[in-house]
Write a structure and sequence with these properties.
By secondary structure, the chain is mostly helical. Helices cover 48% and strands 0% of the residues. The chain has three helices and no strands.
């Protein structure tokens, strides 16, 4: 899981967000046997006295829009 925002996201959730923003379809080719790791960014947020202002969904959507304009 990715500790990007206050919420944690799995790789599948990130892929689903990207698919929604791009119209892509997720196709599973092989089984994923990698171990899952869960991260918590609470320590980072506390140490830096920082709170994310943009959700992962919004950040991905804005990034994709920006990349489309660049190409």
């Amino acid at each position: 899981a990715l500790p990007i925002y206050i919420k944690e996201y799995s790789n599948l959730e990130v892929a689903e967000i990207i698919a929604l923003c791009t119209g892509a379809k997720i196709r599973f080719v092989n089984e994923d046997n990698s171990s899952s790791v869960s991260y918590n960014n609470q320590t980072t947020r506390n140490t830096l006295n920082w709170t994310p202002e943009t959700s992962l969904e919004t950040g991905i959507r804005k990034y994709i829009e920006w990349k489309r304009k660049e190409f």
